[in-house]
Write a structure and sequence with these properties.
CATH topology of the largest domain: nicotinate phosphoribosyltransferase
Number of domains: 2
Helix content: 25-40%
CATH class of the largest domain: Alpha Beta
Shape: elongated
Strand order of the largest sheet: 13-12-1-5-3-16-17
């Protein structure tokens, strides 16, 4: 096993102490069901977007403990030699995983992931599964909101410098699922086939004696159709210099500072006056879905938005607030024994026991109108949609999500939301209410 890809230590200390204690108490081998869900969406959000399932499946497959890792854990005092180290040495996930497909939408209490197997083999996966889903779903959700706000304008992911290098690659994939067109990240382009793009930064302009010399060098290297950064000194003069050097066929200009509305209006007027009517205007500078909405509402003459920091940090919500909870467990190790439902009663953090069946219904106009959760089988109409699909069965991989299909799925699912829920509105509530069938809720759950 290549320890460079092993994920067993991408976990918290208490996962292993729980396993050791479960071995001691006798519950380690009991059949169990865990579910991943969020209790609530961030304020003003109407939906969330699922991403990261391929990473998650890979992480489960690579969850192994080598001899060197086990030795480290014993030396560090995390575990003791004996039954626990034997369990670690033999560990690989043999259970089942069911989940929402990449690009699917989620809402409060959506069972985004269901993990079934022995208590110990399931509980130890908690941290790595939440790490992947909380990050990738947060980025995909932010990306979809920007996409909804941008009215079809081109969207560029430029967030690689604002997050961890590995997170930047995952962010680029999640952003593409959410609707972004290109990324600046070359490894994401190589690994996932996402179109990449980029031209020059302010450092390039400043490295030359004059802005004109910088543009001349860019023209020779990248051609007239590339995008020229025009705000290093003065936007108006920068545009004049760029058109003078490149000519009427200049592909694009980028504005990265100042009042983007006025700057884009100035750029459009000037470009048209100079005969560069087909030149694209690209803007950047701490954009998010709210700023894009404002610019679109003002009819800013912008052709593309480059979004960085706010994209890769979930636009104010860097986690999707997913939790991993035990919902059912057997009372003995006997195979096939019926499991009992279990759930927390903690104030503000109650969970509903039992493995959830889920489907989504459409109204007469083809819009989602309910996500139905039940611990019992229910009769489904022909138009009912089941968002969960098998991911792993008996430890073997059953699914992999092609990026373009996930991107198409995300758009299709958002097109089934009522239009008002795709508008960026700080007063938005979940677009699809969670309906519980055969489950009695207390006042706390009904209020969430």
């Amino acid at each position: 096993m290549d320890q460079g890809v092993a994920t067993a230590l991408h976990t918290d200390h208490y996962e292993l102490t729980m396993v050791a204690s479960a071995i001691e108490s006798g519950v380690a081998g009991r059949d169990s069901v865990f579910e991943v869900f969020t209790r609530r969406l961030p304020a003003g959000r109407a939906y969330g977007v699922v991403a990261g399932m391929n990473r998650l499946i890979e992480a489960i497959g690579n969850f192994r403990f080598s001899d060197a890792v086990i030795e480290h854990l014993v030396t560090a005092g995390v575990v003791s030699a004996g039954p626990m180290t034997e369990w670690l040495a033999n560990y690989h996930f043999r259970g089942d995983v069911t989940g929402y497909a990449d690009g699917e939408l989620f809402f409060p209490y959506s069972p985004v992931l269901t993990v079934e197997g022995s208590f110990a083999e399931c509980v130890v996966l908690e941290t790595v599964l939440l790490s992947v889903l909380n990050h990738d779903c947060a980025v995909a959700s932010a990306a979809a909101r920007v996409t909804d706000a941008a009215n079809g304008r081109r969207l560029i992911d430029g967030g690689s410098r604002r997050t961890d290098p590995d997170a930047a690659i995952a962010s680029a994939r999640a952003a593409h699922i959410g609707g972004f067109d290109t990324t600046s990240n070359l490894e994401a382009g190589r690994r996932y086939g996402i179109p990449t793009g980029g031209t020059t930064a302010h450092a390039f302009v400043l490295a030359h004696a004059t802005e004109t010399l910088a543009f001349e060098a860019q023209l020779r290297a990248m051609g007239a159709d590339s995008t020229y950064l025009v705000d290093t000194f003065d936007i108006e003069q920068g545009i004049r210099n760029a058109v003078h050097v490149v000519g009427h066929d200049i592909g694009g200009v980028r504005i990265d500072s100042g009042d983007l509305l006025e700057g884009s209006r100035l750029a459009r007027r000037l470009l048209d006056e100079l005969g560069a009517a087909n030149c694209r205007i690209v803007v950047s500078s701490d954009l998010d879905e709210y700023r894009v909405t404002e610019l679109e509402a003002a009819k800013a003459p912008i052709d593309a938005y480059l979004v960085g920091t706010q994209l890769v940090t979930g636009s104010g919500y860097p986690t999707a607030s997913m939790v991993y909870k035990l919902v059912a467990i057997a009372d003995s190790d006997n195979p096939g024994q019926k499991m009992r439902a279990v759930g927390k009663l903690s104030p503000g953090k109650r969970t509903i026991g039992g493995r959830k069946n889920v489907h989504r219904t459409l109204d007469a106009n083809g819009y989602w109108n309910s996500e139905v959760l039940s611990v019992l089988p229910v009769d489904l109409s022909e138009t009912a949609h089941r968002p969960q699909v098998p991911l792993i069965r008996s430890g073997g991989v059953e699914a992999s999500f092609e990026l373009q299909h996930a991107r198409d799925r995300c758009l299709d699912r958002r097109n089934r939301l009522r239009p008002e829920f795709r508008r960026i509105n700080p007063d938005n509530t979940p677009a699809v209410p969670t309906t519980w069938v055969g489950i009695e809720l207390d006042e706390e759950m009904n209020s969430q």
